[in-house]
Amino acid sequence: MNTDMTKTYSRLNQYCRIMALLTLIPILILLIGAMSPFLYYFFDIQNIGLEFAGFSFFTSGEDYVDSKSLAGWQATIATLMETSLILILIYAFYQLRLLFINYSQSEYFSVKSANHCYIFGKLLVCWEVIRFLSEPLLTMILTYNQDASARYFSISFSSDDIITLFIAISIMLIGQILKKACQLDEENKQFI
What we know:
mainly alpha, two-stranded antiparallel sheet, 6 helices, 2 strands
């Protein structure tokens, strides 16, 4: 029985090591993608060559704006806004990677692991909220120099946003519950 449990933990640790490695993929892709807003708004490069069958991972900018017509301040603000959203996601995936690294070292019920889980969920919530709030601001900034009839702001909230928020809030709650369970476990150990 004990050897079966050891095999299960060993296999689980191995899966967590694999997941820790796999989380490097979105981190690296997002790091490369973080250059995309800068290249689009300042150099009118719509993608960085990673295009396949008409789909590009790193398309930046909006259909309603010509990046060549933007003032420097508009391009700077748009670049900072879009890049900051990407950096939030990079940090979120970094927290997920740290969580899997802890799990690969059999730290399943530790405050440190629970904090990584909570921070991952919190960053996803922040990313979704900031993305929602930045869209109208970004469209106003990018259309500021256009004729009065062409200026507008856009706001959207889809079912994908609701699902992302629900999952992110659930992950945050799970992280908090795990943290509380770890604290209770530590208190119980002190009484024994």
